[in-house]
Structure formats: structure tokens, C-alpha cells
UniProtKB/TrEMBL annotation:
InterPro entries: PaaX-like_central (IPR048846), PaaX-like_N (IPR012906), PaaX_C (IPR013225), PaaX_trns_reg (IPR011965), WH-like_DNA-bd_sf (IPR036388), WH_DNA-bd_sf (IPR036390). Residues 84-163 form the Transcriptional repressor PaaX-like central Cas2-like domain. It comes from the Bacteria. Transmembrane segments: none annotated. Pfam families: PaaX, PaaX_C, PaaX_M. This is PaaX family transcriptional regulator. Residues 167-249 form the Transcriptional repressor PaaX-like C-terminal domain. Residues 2-64 form the Transcriptional repressor PaaX-like N-terminal domain. GO terms for biological process: DNA-templated transcription.
Length: 261
């Protein structure tokens, strides 16, 4: 659903009719009940707003959803899958929270993983380059509980050792290989009914891969790192089907301008 909203609602100042969302998701095998349930949960989580036009219910983005989707867009189009510009620095984060704040601890860990951090050792997280930890900890109310450093490794520690210890290279690689298995072929996903469905699935699969990639320095990854090939495949396929997908979306989606206030 986030992929769909990012592709067809973000940046348009529109709200989309629930029935046309159901139509699109039916093309990828998602039931009407599941779509309605997801839309309702997203309203409850402050990601969507409802507005009525006659008997129809339309859904638009909240500022929070816009922020989430814009971050996803940056990961897809700006950050890229391969980090060739690492400056040799690391951001280190330590924190201490009592057992009574176990939920906060879980939220902080989740946000650190999303931001590209790996667990180096108990209570110490690390990510390549400079990361804005304030933007992670402040919304959680945890600024007073984190300690942040920017540093470089020193002997006997090597950057390659940090990459190996803090990050599951095999799991990251496997996600890209799974993407390639599905999409790196002359006629990918022939079971999809049209390019609207195909592009939705393509972007969903790609975002699943890059959102769990900490963007590690290319110099410390295997020469045959699959993200390189996967990124090329994604860009080529998206360019091939974007026009047809956009045309179909314009025909299928019933949208209205977002109501003021």
C-alpha cells in the first residue's frame, strides 16, 4: 500500500477513491477485505485521512505519510543501492534504557536498522558515513538516552571487520538475488495482468530490498555484489513500463483534490 501511495498519490495533492484502490490491488491478488482493512488501519495510525464526496470515500495522505513516502522515494531514486562515495567515517550510537522502557528500546532499534545501523556489540550501533541520529531519537523522546560519535577505525580494527561483524552481508545479498531471480529476465512476471500491476510489484520488491540495505561501502563488499546488477535491472524495467503504467492509472484511479483543512 505504501508503494501504491508513493507512486500514485504522493505529490499530487489528491485523495483516491477506495473502490479504485481495490480495483488496482485485485490485479495483484489482494482481496477487497484486505485493502479496506489496510486503509482503515492506516487512518488509525495517522497515515491517511478520509474525505467523502457523495457516497464515495476517498483517502489522502497526512503529513506523516508524506514524510515516510518521501523517504522511500529518496531511497529508490537518490541514495542508490551502491555506496561508492564513503568518506571513511562511521557514526556510532550507544544507548541505555531500563527494562521498564522496553517498548522504547524496541522502537529505537527499529529506527536505527531503518537508518542503516548494524549492531556491532551489546548497546553499540554503527553505520557508515554521517547519520542524523537526532532525527531518529527526538521523535521517540530519547535524546537524553543516546550517545553519538563520529569516528574512524584504528589499528588493529579494520573497516572490513566492522562490516562483517555488524551487518549480515549474506542476508542483504540474498534479498537482491531474490529480486534478480524474479525480474532479471526478458519478459518478467508474465502472470501480471498489465503494466500497472507489474510496476506496482516491481517497486514493492525493489523497496523491500533497498529499505533493508545499510548502504555499506562498496570497497568492502564482494566484487560481484548483486545490488549493482539489481539496480540496473530495476531502472531499465521501470523505464520500459512507466508510460503504460501511468496511462492505466489515469484511466483506473478516481481521484479528487484534497479538501482544505
Amino acid at each position: 500500500m505504501l508503494t501504491f501511495l508513493g507512486m500514485h498519490v504522493l505529490g499530487h495533492d489528491t485523495a483516491v477513491y477506495s473502490g479504485s484502490v481495490i480495483d488496482v490491488f485485485a490485479r495483484v491478488g489482494v482481496s477487497e477485505e484486505a485493502v479496506r482493512s489496510t486503509l482503515t488501519r492506516m487512518v488509525g495510525r495517522g497515515l491517511l485521512i478520509r474525505q467523502r464526496h457523495g457516497r464515495r470515500v476517498y483517502f489522502g495522505l497526512t503529513p506523516r505519510a508524506t514524510e515516510v513516502l518521501e523517504d522511500g522515494g529518496r531511497r529508490i531514486w537518490d541514495t542508490g543501492a551502491v555506496n561508492r562515495d564513503w568518506d571513511g567515517t562511521w557514526t556510532l550510537v550507544g544507548y541505555s534504557l531500563p527494562d521498564s522502557r522496553r517498548s522504547d528500546r524496541h522502537d529505537l532499534r527499529s529506527q536505527l536498522v531503518w537508518a542503516g545501523f548494524g549492531l556491532l556489540q551489546n548497546g553499540l550501533w554503527i553505520a557508515p558515513g554521517t547519520r542524523d541520529v537526532t532525527a531518529i531519537a527526538e521523535p521517540l523522546g530519547l535524546l537524553d538516552h543516546v550517545t553519538v560519535f563520529s569516528a574512524q577505525e584504528a589499528k588493529p580494527t579494520e573497516s572490513a571487520d566492522l562490516v562483517r561483524k555488524a551487518f549480515d552481508i549474506e542476508a542483504i545479498s540474498a534479498r537482491y538475488r531474490t529480486f534478480l531471480d524474479r525480474w532479471d529476465r526478458p519478459k518478467p512476471l508474465p502472470s501480471a495482468p498489465d503494466d500497472l500491476a507489474r510496476r506496482l510489484l516491481l517497486h514493492t520488491d525493489w523497496l523491500q530490498a533497498v529499505r533493508q540495505d545499510p548502504h555499506l561501502p562498496a570497497e568492502h563488499l564482494p566484487a560481484d555484489w548483486p545490488a549493482i546488477r539489481a539496480e540496473q535491472v530495476f531502472a531499465r524495467l521501470d523505464a520500459r513500463i512507466r508510460e503504460a503504467s501511468t496511462r492505466l492509472a489515469e484511466e483506473v484511479l478516481d481521484v479528487v483534490a484534497v479538501a482544505d483543512g
